[in-house]
Structures are given as structure tokens and as C-alpha cells.
Amino acid sequence: MLKRFSISLDELLLAKFDDFIRLRAYSNRSEAIRDLIRKALVKEAWEADREVVGVITLVYDHHRALLQEKITDLQHELHHHIISSMHVHMDHDNCLEVIVVRGKAQQIQSLAERLCALRGVKDGNLSMSSTGGHLH
Ligand code: NI
């Protein structure tokens, strides 16, 4: 059920918020505020070590000896956290691996750090998201 509430804001802050809304192409203030609240809840879930989902993105050197095996070994070791993975052969030298993960925030963060720290990984990112339960 949709509930309404009003917000009091300093004029200058509201002007900045309206600029932000235009820049991000939100259709109205309510949608922008809903999005900001959801983002805050996702951040809080990660900080409180709750059950979360994330996406780990790795770009790495295809020619680095044993790197592919190390990346696969780590995923097997922590298979209960791995939902899905996709491998893309980007060009002659580079591979991209996208891994969708789920689990307690700290375990997911540590898995991402271990993968990103492997020698030969040129770029590694963890996109932090939510299992969705509290985002309605
Ligand atoms: Ni490849």
C-alpha cells in the first residue's frame, strides 16, 4: 500500500535535488526519493553483514599461466556462494568473467577481494545489491 508523507527541505537543497532529478532523468521527486531510500537500505544490509547478492566483474590476462584455473578453483571452493558465472573472451589477450554471488555480506566481500587480488587480474569490481526482500 502506498503511503504519503511530506518532507520539509531547505530551498537551496531542494533546488539541488531537482537538478539531480533532471540529471538522472527521474520522472518525479517521489521516484527519486524511493530510489535513494532503497540504496540506503542496500548499503545498510552490506554494513550489517546481512544476506545479500552481488556481481563480481573481473577483467584478466588470458595468457597468465594458471590464472583461469585459480579463478575457477576459488569458485568451486565457495560454490555455495556462486549463483552463476559467465566468461567472455574479450579480445586476443583479455578475458571478462562476470560472477553472480549470494551470501553474508562479509563472506561475499572477502571472496571478491580474493578474486581481485589474484595476479593477472587487471580490473576487479564488486557491485553490491540486495536479495530484494525489503526493496518493495
Ligand atoms: Ni577468455
Give an overview of the whole structure.
- The protein is an alpha+beta fold and 136 residues long.
- It folds into two domains: 11-47; 51-135, Alpha-Beta Plaits.
- The chain has four helices and four strands; from the N terminus they run ααβαββαβ.
- It has a four-stranded antiparallel β-sheet with strand order 2-3-1-4.
- The longest helix has 19 residues, at 29-47.
- The protein is elongated, with a radius of gyration of 19 Å.
- The mean pLDDT is 95.
- The structure holds nickel (II) ion (NI).
- Nickel (II) ion binds at residues 62, 87, 89, 95.
Q: What is the CA-CA span between the terminal residues?
A: 10 Å
Share of β-strand residues: 25-35%
Shape: elongated
CATH fold field value of the largest domain: Alpha-Beta Plaits
Structural class: alpha+beta
Largest sheet, if any? 4 strands, antiparallel
Q: Which CATH architecture of the largest domain is right?
A: 2-Layer Sandwich
**What number of structural domains do the residues give?**
2
Mean pLDDT: 95
Ligand names: nickel (II) ion
Query: What is the rounded Rg?
Result: 19 Å
Provide the low-confidence segments as ranges: none
Approximate helicity band: 40-55%
| SS summary, helix count | 4
The largest sheet has its strands arranged as: 2-3-1-4
How many β strands by DSSP? 4
Brief digest:
This protein is an alpha+beta fold.
Break the fold down into its secondary structure elements and pairings.
Blueprint: H1 11-24, H2 29-47, E1 51-61, H3 67-77, E2 82-89, E3 94-104, H4 105-116, E4 121-130
Antiparallel strand pairs: 1-3, 1-4, 2-3
Nickel (II) ion binds at residues 62, 87, 89, 95.
